Amino acid sequence: MNRRNALRLAGGALLTAPLLSTPFLARAQEAWPIRQVRIVIPFAAGGPQDIPARIIAERLSRTMGATFIIENRPGVGGGLGAQMVANSPPDGATLLFISSSISILPTLQRQLNFDPLRDLAPLTVVCDVPAGMMVRADSRFTDLASLIAEAKANPGKLTYGSGGVGSANHLAGAQFAALAGLETVHVPYRGVSQAVNAIYTGEIDFVFGSSVEVLAHHRQGRARLLGMTMPQRVPAVPDIPAIAELVPGYSAPNWFAMFAPKGMPQPMMDRLVAELTAMRDDEVLNARLSPAAAIIRMDGPAALTAQLTAEIPRWRDVIRKAGIGGDS
Which residue ranges does UniProt annotate as crossing the membrane (predicted)? Predict the structure, then answer.
């Protein structure tokens, strides 16, 4: 090949190569405008949100040209961290990773004057995380029917624990009692792990907790799950009934979601949503969450908005009927 033909071929390659690989190069070279991004979890470190949030932070750090770090900001049932994100500049430096408790905040923490639909930009529901009602393995309650029967025969005697007043699991128990026509006593703890310990010591009769927090105890044979809070049976644990099978109308879905501050430019929102949606089939995320019966969704802003729109008024009704106050 002579020099002229070689140069012609080289020039043609330079002209055509960008056309073939532009999308890949653009994604690889397009850096996030902020070099370090905080993903705020508004609960204490070590909670069930930490596992998926840290995997997501690591994945985003690989693809977004920025470093994503986790920052735990507990307080006011998740309201402190959520409000901090809502008040942050919409410049891409701060995101929120929170549980379904965000649908409770507008009613229970009225002093915050916080409304997630008004004050935050939804990114996606990350995953559904079923919750369950659990007793000790040697409990006299062998199934949900026996617990309901004893609670009806002894009003105000049975006690249940949760991760705190106004937590999603507290309200799961309050809704259970209301729909089943029971009078039970709620005992709040500083986290579900403390409430689980309390069933082993005999302080309480049963506990509500997310599958991330309770399923391993059931599988190890140390405790027994009597029912799940999702409206239907959970595919990963088909032998455990949905509470709704004995208590018609019962549903206390639990989920994790991500938000950005309101006002983030649409191109930045679109980029984040695209990156999160691409994680739906992430092997590491699925491998870490599937043992806890969690179901990855990553289904975008519209689904998260619809979820909030449905659940905020439903939990408002449960809170008011149960007389639950935010100052406890």
Answer: none
34-129+254-322 is a CATH 3.40.190.150 domain: yes
pLDDT class of 68 with cuts at 50, 70, 90: very high
Mean pLDDT to the nearest integer, 40-57? 93
Neighbour-count burial for 191-200, b at 16+ CB within 10 Å, e otherwise:
bbbebbebbe
Give CA–CA dist 149/181, Å, rounded. Answer: 11
Tell me which CATH homologous superfamily contains domain 131-245: Periplasmic binding protein-like II (3.40.190.10)
Q: Name the segment(s) of the chain with CATH classification 3.40.190.10.
A: 131-245
Report which residue type is found at 71. Answer: E
> How far apart, in whole angstroms, are the C-alpha atoms of residue 323 and residue 320?
5
Identify the band that residue 12 occupies on the pLDDT scale cut at 50, 70 and 90.
Answer: very low
State whether the Cα torsion 318-121-299-285 is positive or negative. negative
Q: Where in the chain is the domain with CATH 3.40.190.150?
A: 34-129+254-322
Amino acid, res. 28: A
pTM for the model: 0.86
- Tell me the average pLDDT across 262-281: 97
Structure tokens at 9: 């071929």
Burial of 98 (0-12, 13-18, 19+ CB in 10 A): buried
CA dihedral 120, 269, 305, 317 (to 10 degrees): -20
Residue 187 pLDDT > 80: yes
Please give the Cα distance from 202 to 140 (Å, whole number). 12
Q: How many angstroms separate the CA atoms of 4 and 224, rounded?
A: 79
From residue 247, give the alpha-carbon distance in Å to each of 177, 233, 301: 10, 13, 32
